[in-house]
Design brief:
Blueprint: H1 25-29, H2 37-51, H3 57-71, H4 102-116, H5 118-125, H6 132-135
Length: about 140
């Protein structure tokens, strides 16, 4: 556990990977349209953010900070995050061709995470992140 946590925005979509779960989690997720505003909020809050609650508030802060930084990059291709990778046993509930606005999807993840995790993200932001590695 002495390995530093390196946040990657692909971790945000872990709950949407349905490899070998097509008949369970896949069916639940496919009831929603990721391009519909209300459905997207449900997907993000109920599946994505809830799935990441196992992370400490510090890890979630680092992950959302990485997402913020990535959203600030105009050249980043968010659609690649929805690509399935069968060699890595990763099948996404919706592939990159089914998400009309991948950047918008991640922007909504960022917005909703800042609402749902507001207290934890604020707590982490007030700490000296440079000492986190020493304490963990």
């Amino acid at each position: 556990m002495n390995t530093p946590y390196i946040p990657n925005i692909s971790h945000l979509l872990g709950a949407l990977s349905i490899y070998d779960l097509e008949n369970t989690a896949g069916k639940k997720l496919r009831k929603y349209n990721p391009n519909n505003e209300k459905d997207r909020e449900t997907i993000i809050i109920t599946f994505i953010l809830k799935d990441l609650m196992y992370l400490s508030y510090r890890h979630r802060f680092a992950l959302i900070s990485a997402l913020r930084d990535t959203l600030n990059r105009s050249d980043f291709d968010f659609s690649k995050e929805f690509e399935s990778d069968y060699d890595e046993y990763r099948t996404m509930a919706w592939n990159e061709t089914e998400i009309a606005d991948p950047r918008g999807f991640f922007a909504d993840v960022y917005r909703l995470a800042n609402e749902v995790w507001k207290d934890d993200l604020q707590k982490a932001s007030l700490e000296d992140q440079s000492v986190w590695r020493e304490r963990n």
